[in-house]
Amino acid sequence: MKKRGRTWRCRRRRIQMQQPVNLSSTTGLITLRQWMHKADYHGNHLIPALFTDTGRGLMTLKPLKVDDVIISIPKRLLITTQTTLDSEIGDYIKSCTPKLTPLQVLCIFLMYEKAKGLNSSWHPYISVLPQVYTTPAYFSNEELTSLPRFLSIQAQQQVLTVKGAYEAVADILVTMETMFAFCHGVMGFEEFRWAWFVINTRSVYMKQDVSEFLQPEVNTYALAPLLDLLNHSPTVEVSAAYNKSSQCYEIKTKTPYKKYDQVFICYGPHDNTKLLVEYGFTVPHNPHNVVMFEIDDIVKCLTCQLSSQHSHGALMEKKLQILHSNQMTSDLSYSLDGLSWKLQTVLRILCMDFNELNSWKRILTGGECSKQTELKSKQLANECIQGALNSNQETVQKVRLLPTSQHVDLVLSVCEERKLILESQL
Known about the structure:
Blueprint: H1 6-18, E1 21-22, H2 27-38, E2 46-51, E3 55-60, E4 69-74, H3 81-85, H4 90-95, H5 102-116, H6 123-126, H7 141-145, H8 149-179, H9 189-202, E5 204-208, E6 219-222, E7 231-232, E8 238-243, E9 248-253, E10 262-265, H10 272-279, E11 291-293, H11 295-301, H12 310-325, E12 332-335, E13 338-339, H13 341-350, H14 354-357, H15 360-364, H16 371-399, H17 406-423
Parallel strand pairs: 7-10
Antiparallel strand pairs: 1-2, 2-3, 3-10, 4-9, 5-6, 8-9, 11-12, 12-13
Helix pairs in contact: 5-9, 8-9, 13-16, 16-17
């Protein structure tokens, strides 16, 4: 037998390290699958596994072709508002005034069932849910204050949203602590925040009838055990819906898979900023990544400021008025494909002289500007990009001073992706 060399052994070890680790024998996941099978779940080709690039996910034990059903979760395993209304706390929820929203109802139900521990019929599912999340609402104050502006605004808004959502039901939760002994001390803000993010990061879209007992708003949240282990990929396509015939929530793949591949779903065409804020993760080399420019920052890069000579200030004011009246001051994006049409158009209008500005409508309909304006707009674009690069570097230096954490790593990954975009066409 031919003796294998050191190179072969190193290559084999590297391949083994990259292979997913089967998690189906993990106690909690064994219990989950047994519990689901008792409720008529019959899927056996998807198993939980640990992947080197995404962490926990689902691996297929057989090849999947286009339009194959990835997973099918029976209705009785879905947690919806109707689940809550039919539960032992349903009558209490129905009696609440003012009426609760679907999201509030699901948060209360999850907190209640978690408080019951092993006595909950949903314990096999709840016990395998993450106990903390990596969304900005879980960031420390030091981490929040170190965020770049484009992230900070959304992060602070999320913090306020979650606190406001808790305060809206705080009295109800206090009442439940007095009604149920096992709820005492476990219906506070920390538990509510956990439930809020379980629903907002793991629920599937499932349109349901508006209940007379709840606020009359669109009801689309549903939690689906095991299905929520499917990770996001921006490059796959799926179709997902509740199948009234089979009484199951089904996902079909539009992307083929080989045996032992990780199976993905797609949350939508989200860039890493949205993924971090909404779900607490980022995707390397995300094709949907963009850098957004603010109109105020672009104006600051111009040599002719509003505060300069009166004629220049009046001209700039007219340009901004044109842009505002035509909804051209937001969604100014820059990606690996270059400047968006909207951003290019804004730069050209801002660089026009007084005479050319009279024909600004031509630019909005795809017409060309003068060569001088085109040159100035490209110079302005470079100044804006360089300014964004400098700001990005300052953020990186500031964030790196923080104690190491997963939050810090996520912010740095967003900054690195921004850097790649900004440097791509300089």
